[in-house]
Specification:
Layout (H helix, E strand, L loop, with lengths): L20 H5 L25 H6 L8 H19 L7 H17 L5 H23 L2 H42 L3
Length: 182
């Protein structure tokens, strides 16, 4: 049996090195107590982007693909249900996105602004383009989309993003008010 300092590394990750990991994570040698020379340091102008910024970032992954796909499916459902309301028309799509994002903010324990905003933007953009295709005679719809397709999708994406983010914000605000001690 070999001593632990004499054994062969089992993988590349097991190789013992003399690198100070803390000095790699903190900028300008804050971990070792020494300051880097600003003349030789390539990131001298970005002193706030190193160790101080790292402390403000959340630990772990902030975006989950699984939660994004769930939010996207719910957002598509909200767009379809909101768009099927006869009197309000396409504004109902935004109301459906708002309601879905509000519910996610109210029920969820984590902030999911990125997932909700991206899912709402995608769902509304696709809904606006498909709504244009189905609301006009097919050859005319193709002509309209070839001329104004990017603008139509942009309106849908922008409106969906705003509606989703506002809904999520208000849902989280209500959750915060309901769970806070009085």
């Amino acid at each position: 049996m070999q001593r632990s300092d004499e054994r062969e590394p089992e993988s590349d990750l097991d190789v013992d090195t003399d690198v100070d990991v803390a000095s790699l994570l903190d900028e300008e040698g804050e971990a070792s107590g020494t300051r880097a020379d600003p003349a030789t340091d390539a990131t001298a102008g970005t002193a706030d982007s190193g160790g101080r910024l790292r402390g403000r970032l959340p630990d772990g992954p902030t975006v989950s693909v699984r939660s994004f796909l769930l939010v996207l499916a719910l957002s598509i459902g909200g767009v379809v249900v909101g768009g099927s309301i006869p009197i309000v028309g396409s504004i109902g799509r935004f109301l459906g996105l708002f309601a879905v994002a509000f519910a996610i903010g109210l029920v969820g324990s984590r902030r999911r602004y990125l997932e909700v905003g991206l899912a709402g933007a995608v769902a509304a953009g696709v809904a606006f383009v498909l709504g244009t295709l189905t609301s006009v005679f097919a050859p005319v719809a193709v002509s309209v989309l070839s001329d104004f397709g990017l603008a139509i999708a942009g309106v849908g994406v922008g409106g969906g993003l705003v509606a989703s983010l506002l809904g999520h914000y208000f849902g989280r605000d209500l959750r915060s008010g309901l769970t806070r001690d009085v």
